[in-house]
Structures are given as C-alpha cells and as structure tokens.
Amino acid sequence: xxxxxxxxxxxxxxxxxxxxxxxxxxxxxxxxxxxxxxxxxxxxxxxxxxxxxxxxxxxxxxxxxxxxxxxxxxxxxxxxxxxxxxxxxxxxxxxxxxxxxxxxxxxxxxxxxxxxxxxxxxxxxxxxxxxxxxxxxxxxxxxxxxxxxxxxxxxxxxxxxxxxxxxxxxxxxxxxxxxxxxxxxxxx
Length: 188
Prior knowledge:
Elements: H1 13-62, H2 66-69, E1 73-74, E2 80-81, E3 90-100, E4 103-114, E5 117-120, E6 145-149, E7 157-167, E8 174-184
C-alpha cells in the first residue's frame, strides 16, 4: 500500500528572494525622501537660529538711546566707537562670530547717520475755491519754508542695519539675513 505524502504547498526560496527584492526597490525612494526632508529641516534650523540672533541683536541695538549711539556707540558687547573714528556718515562693525551647533554665524552692524530735513509749502489761501474739507481745492505756494535744513539739526537719525551671515552646511553657500531699524533723537 502506498502512503500519501502530505501536501507540499509553500514558498520557494526564489519567491522569497523576489519578494524581498521588490520590497527593497520600493523602499529606496522612501529613504531618499526621508533624507531630503532631514536636509530641509537642518536648513530650517539654521535659518531659525540666524533669525533668533538677528532679533536679539536688533533688540539690543534698539534699546540704545540716541545720545549713546551717536557718536559713541556702546552695546552689551564690547563695541565702542569714538567720535574720531565715526566721522563719516556710515560705519560698519563686525560684532563677532557666534557658533551654534557647529555653525559659525557672523553678526555685523552698519550705522548710517542722516540729517533731519523738513520743509513745507504753505497753503495758498488766495484760491477762491479753497475748502478745508476738499483736498482737491487746496493749492500750495511755490516757495518752500525750510524748517530744518540738515545743518541746524545734523544727524538726528541713525539707521541701524544688523546682518547675520553663515555658510549653509547642506549647499555650502553663503546665506545672509538682515534687519533695519532707526534710532532717532527725540529729546531736542
């Protein structure tokens, strides 16, 4: 009598290897996308850190009263510009390098002095159609009245530009962000 052998249904080694090969090929694009996302996240972290440094330095600079900022500038760091150095209208100074997570950020400050100039043209009241509530009827004199001509009140505005530079670790390109504020002498 012949014995029947149990059924030998199953998976061969070749089928297992083919399934593994298909799985590996489908995971390659997914792993590439994960790496791309990680590089983007690193780049975003670098930008956020640069923005934090920029905001910190802008806040420190904006807190300086005009009388201390022009011409003797003193911030929380050791920056001191004497009036003999700051004789022009623009002066730039590097605040230094700040290293965060292996990235060197260079922070710099550019100061530009501006004179106050203000003039106006008086309203010509000889116009018979003049109506205070209708700007279309306003007419102005051709002569200017200079209230402040820039020499009587020189350099009452100080433009402050703060820049943060770094080298992107992903692309190896120089990156830069900057912000602008003004310090004005409102005491006179």
